[in-house]
Design a protein that fits this description.
metal-binding, two-stranded antiparallel sheet, reaction center, Photosynthetic Reaction Center, subunit C, domain 2, transport, heme binding, about 35% helix, Photosynthetic reaction center cytochrome c subunit
Length: about 375
């Protein structure tokens, strides 16, 4: 037996030696490294240059349409049943409609949303959804400008990328045996799911953390704030869910933990980067959009557009970011389409409640001179 093991060990050693000589000239791929925190903390973003180039190429904003000729009647007078953009001039309205077609349905054309025999007809659900999405876009570019999207803004293309249905939407994950009636006691984890990097983390954290109307229904934390438990919660399971959400955000933005956190003290806001404040607001923006714009469209979407459990398609971090820390590489897409940054001027369509005024968390990003961000006033205390 010892002889057999000795021979096997010698063969393994031989192959390892050959592999060592055969790979002696290999070098690691060229890396792109950017410092994201204080020097000496190791808060760097590291990726291969090839991947960085490929991802950047996938996130190029389309060229804007030529400006509309000034003057003319308002679209609300020229066309029937214009409920959101009636205060644009007819030329501005037509320019935006052409751009929306290129952003959302370049292959299907106008007929994806419109009955071309009667353009005022609302029978197609796509038109009713598009109207609400216009309101949502205006809401993002006004209410969330200072808190998250800044001067870059968003357009329909930010999410759609030339597809009627954005590639990065999500539904509540039913888990295994969703149709059998059997509910496993697995804490929603221990399955290889891409949403958490094929880890054993809970795979449906988006429903809990990004599908809520009310801000902070579920605290996103890893460490408790007291030495002993104060309730019936399960802090370890809660921490695993938080890590699942962080994994999603890391993949969605193409960054690692140190983009927002100093890993020496993950929860410490004073040692975090300004990006953590932006991410804090981004989570609440996504909740706002899902709770006040998408979930109320449940009766508008046909059954084939709903998830396995009958829920509507929703947005997450990846929907806009698509693997880069700034959507479309930070292009200021709203500059050429200021009408998408105007306040909503029309009532919501039937079946969709008008969004309530969202209380703004007092969390201005720190001045550029100071890299340490100010902790949002209503954020969990570290």
């Amino acid at each position: 037996m010892k002889t057999v093991l000795g021979i096997a060990g010698a063969v393994a050693a031989l192959f390892l030696t050959i592999a060592m000589f055969g790979t002696a000239g290999w070098t690691r791929p060229p890396l792109a490294v950017s410092q994201n925190g204080y020097r000496g903390t190791g808060m760097d973003q590291v990726e291969s240059r090839a991947d960085a180039i490929a991802v950047k190429a996938e996130n190029v904003a389309p060229a804007p349409a030529d400006p509309a000729e000034p003057g003319g009647d308002l679209a609300g007078k020229t066309y029937e049943n214009v409920k959101v953009l009636q205060n644009l001039t007819t030329n501005e309205f037509n320019r935006l409609m052409v751009s929306m077609t290129e952003w959302v349905s370049p292959e299907q054309g106008c007929t994806y949303c419109h009955n071309t025999e009667n353009m005022a007809d609302d029978s197609l659900y796509q038109k009713r959804v598009a109207r609400r999405m216009l309101q949502m876009t205006q809401h993002i570019n006004t209410e969330w400008k200072q808190k998250h999207v800044q001067g870059a803004g968003v357009t329909c293309y930010t999410c759609h990328r030339g597809q009627p249905v954005p590639a990065n939407i999500w539904f509540t994950d039913p888990g295994p045996n969703a149709t059998s009636g059997f509910i496993p006691r697995n804490n929603g984890q221990n399955l290889a799911k891409a949403s958490v990097g094929l880890a054993s983390l809970p795979y449906d954290t988006l429903t809990e953390f990004l599908g809520q109307k009310e801000i902070d229904n579920n605290l996103i934390r890893v460490n408790a704030t007291t030495a002993l438990p104060e309730g019936k919660g399960k802090p370890i399971q809660a921490a695993e869910k938080t890590y699942g959400l962080m994994m999603h955000m890391s993949q969605g933005l193409g960054v690692n933990c140190t983009y927002c956190h100093n890993t020496r003290a993950i929860s410490n806001w004073s040692e975090s980067t300004p990006q953590r404040v932006s991410a804090w607001h981004g989570i609440r923006m996504v909740r706002d959009l899902n709770g006040n714009y998408l979930e109320p469209l449940l009766s508008t979407f046909p059954r084939n557009r709903l998830g396995v459990l009958g829920d509507v398609p929703k947005v997450n971090c990846t929907t806009c970011h698509n693997g880069v820390n700034k959507p479309l590489n930070g292009a200021h897409v709203i500059d050429a389409y200021p009408e998408l940054a105007r306040p909503v001027v029309a009532e919501a369509p039937a079946g969709a409640a008008a969004p309530p005024a969202l209380p703004a968390p007092a969390a201005p990003a720190p001045a550029p001179a100071s890299p340490a961000p100010a902790m949002p006033s209503d954020a969990p205390k570290p």
